[in-house]
Amino acid sequence: MKKALTLVSVVAGNIMLASAQISINIGVGANQGQVNGGALLQLLALAQTIVTRLVPFAVGLAVLAFFWFLIKFIWKGSENPDEKSASLKGMGYAILALFVMVSIWGLVGFMGSLVGINQGGSVPIPGVPIPG
Q1: What is the reported pLDDT for 92?
Q2: How far apart (Å, rounded) are the C-alpha atoms in residues 86 and 89?
Q3: Coil, helix or strand for 35?
Q4: I need a labelling partner for 26 at 20 to 30 A (CA). Which of 41, 45, 51, 74 fits?
């Protein structure tokens, strides 16, 4: 489990690093005196897209893990007490993962509603005038 988690984090880190190296191209725009931040905005949009797609996938994966351990508990739990305790522990971790993910999702939504950012909404990006 620890090796799989390490592998997933290394792969995700490499993907983010590669996309950051490709996407970050902050330089002077066509109009002199204006800084081009479009590449940084594209990088943030890419990160938002990745997170938006991974959250439902992670919740679904936790639900599948719970049912997998439930099936193992039903089939092998009556025969082997070690399998029974391992299945119970796996179900507990799956429920804990679901609780944490949904709680964070709810807290982010609550904080967004306090600040005035609803789901799917946007905030105007302030600009810094550059004297020319």
Answers
A1: 96
A2: 5
A3: strand
A4: 51
Nearest of 99, 31, 34 to residue 66 by alpha carbon: 99
Alpha helices for 26-116 (secondary structure H): 38-76, 81-115
The tokens describing 129, both together, are 């005038």
Give the count of beta carbons closer than 10 Å to the beta carbon of residue 67.
11
Instruction: Work out the number of other CB atoms within 10 angstroms of the CB of residue 34.
Output: 13
93-97: long-range pairs with CB below 8 Å, 24+? 93/65, 94/62, 94/63, 94/65, 94/66, 94/69, 95/66, 97/58, 97/62, 97/65
Of 108, 89, 107, 86, nearest to 97 by C-alpha is 89
Prediction pTM value:
0.56
Q: How many degrees, rounded to 5, is the angle at CA 76 between CA 70 and CA 81?
A: 100
Question: CB of 72 within 8 A of CB of 83?
Answer: yes
What confidence tier does 73 reach under pLDDT thresholds 50, 70, 90? very high
